[in-house]
Structures are given as structure tokens and as C-alpha cells.
């Protein structure tokens, strides 16, 4: 598979940043490698992880061991027997999670300048509560300047 999405090589600093952003004490994937173990590898090991992630990034080929996940159905309520009453979690390799976090951070850094300052949904450190608190001043300002204005609220 030819990778048509060439980007800069993954830097060791990106791997270290991704590891720092990961939650500790989480269940491991099929490879039984925890984020704490990866952290304990220090400089030499992080270099090896960086090299592996660059191979994956350059070729688009994820090793079989890193592409496997364990799916677990957890009951939403005790004694649940129907599928709808369960939620599924996926346990994947923490090395794969590091790669995904690096890609996500790269995408976020590219997209951030394109997002309007007013957007609150799906933006880090902003949410619908920000929009709700902003709405009265916006409505007051718009009503004083005699401009048509639409305000949409979607709940649910």
C-alpha cells in the first residue's frame, strides 16, 4: 500500500508529548504493553518506539500485533442480557494509541487556525455552556443594531 499522505517524520518530542497526554493506569491491549512501561523505556526505548512509528507512518503498514484489539461488552446496568443494554470498549495497543494521538495532534494543529473563534462545539476547552453564556450579549447587541439575526439551539 503506497502512502499518499506524506508528512514530516515523527519526532521523538512528538512521541514524548503523546505519552505525557495519555492516561495512566489503563488496561493494556493484546500486546500487554502499558503506557507506564513505554515511559520507563526512557531515551533509548523512546527512540526505538519513534523509529517503529516512523516505519508505520511511512509505509502505511501496521504490524499485525499492533492492529489487533480486544472488544469487551460492558453492561450499562447490572444483569443486562440484551445487546442494547451493553456498551462496547476496545482495548488496543498503547503504541498504536501513541501513533493515533500524534496524528490527531498534527491534524488539530493544522485545523485550529481555520476554526472560527465563535465555534464552541467540538473545540478543546470550549463547549455548549460557553455558547449559552455568550448568547444573551450577542442577542442584546444584534437587537440594538437592527440587523436580521438567526439563533439556532439544538438540544439532544
What is the fold's blueprint, element by element?
Elements: H1 12-21, H2 35-40, H3 42-59, H4 64-67, E1 69-75, E2 86-92, H5 94-111, H6 128-144
Antiparallel strand pairs: 1-2
Largest sheet: 2 strands, antiparallel
Report how far apart the termini are: 41 Å
In the predicted model, the low-confidence regions spanning at least 5 consecutive residues are none
> Which structural class matches the secondary elements?
mainly alpha
Q: What is the string of SSEs from the N terminus onward?
A: HHHHEEHH
DSSP helix count? 6
Protein name: LINE-1 retrotransposable element orf2 protein
InterPro entries: DNA/RNA_pol_sf
General description of the model:
The chain has 156 residues and is mainly α. The protein folds into 2 domains: 12-114, no CATH class; 116-156, no CATH class. The chain has helices at residues 12-21, 35-40, 42-59, 64-67, 94-111, 128-144, and strands at 69-75, 86-92. The protein has a two-stranded antiparallel ribbon. α1 (12-21) crosses α5 (94-111). The model has no long low-confidence stretch (mean pLDDT 86). This is LINE-1 retrotransposable element orf2 protein.
How would you describe this structure in keywords?
mainly alpha; two-stranded antiparallel ribbon; 6 helices; 47% helix; 9% strand
Task: Briefly summarize what is shown.
This protein is mainly alpha-helical and 156 residues long.
Amino acid at each position: 500500500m503506497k502512502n499518499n499522505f506524506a508528512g514530516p517524520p515523527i519526532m521523538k518530542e512528538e512521541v514524548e508529548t503523546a505519552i505525557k497526554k495519555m492516561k495512566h493506569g489503563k488496561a493494556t491491549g493484546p500486546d500487554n504493553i502499558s503506557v507506564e512501561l513505554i515511559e520507563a523505556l526512557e531515551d533509548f526505548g523512546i527512540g526505538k518506539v519513534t523509529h517503529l512509528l516512523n516505519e508505520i507512518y511511512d509505509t502505511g503498514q501496521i504490524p499485525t500485533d499492533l492492529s489487533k484489539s480486544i472488544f469487551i461488552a460492558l453492561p450499562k446496568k447490572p444483569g443486562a442480557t440484551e445487546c442494547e443494554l451493553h456498551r462496547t470498549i476496545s482495548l488496543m495497543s498503547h503504541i498504536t494509541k501513541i501513533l493515533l494521538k500524534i496524528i490527531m495532534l498534527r491534524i488539530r494543529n493544522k485545523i485550529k487556525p481555520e476554526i472560527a473563534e465563535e465555534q464552541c462545539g467540538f473545540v478543546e476547552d470550549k463547549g455548549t455552556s460557553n455558547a449559552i453564556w455568550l448568547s444573551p450579549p450577542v442577542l442584546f447587541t444584534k437587537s440594538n443594531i437592527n440587523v436580521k439575526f438567526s439563533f439556532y439551539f439544538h438540544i439532544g
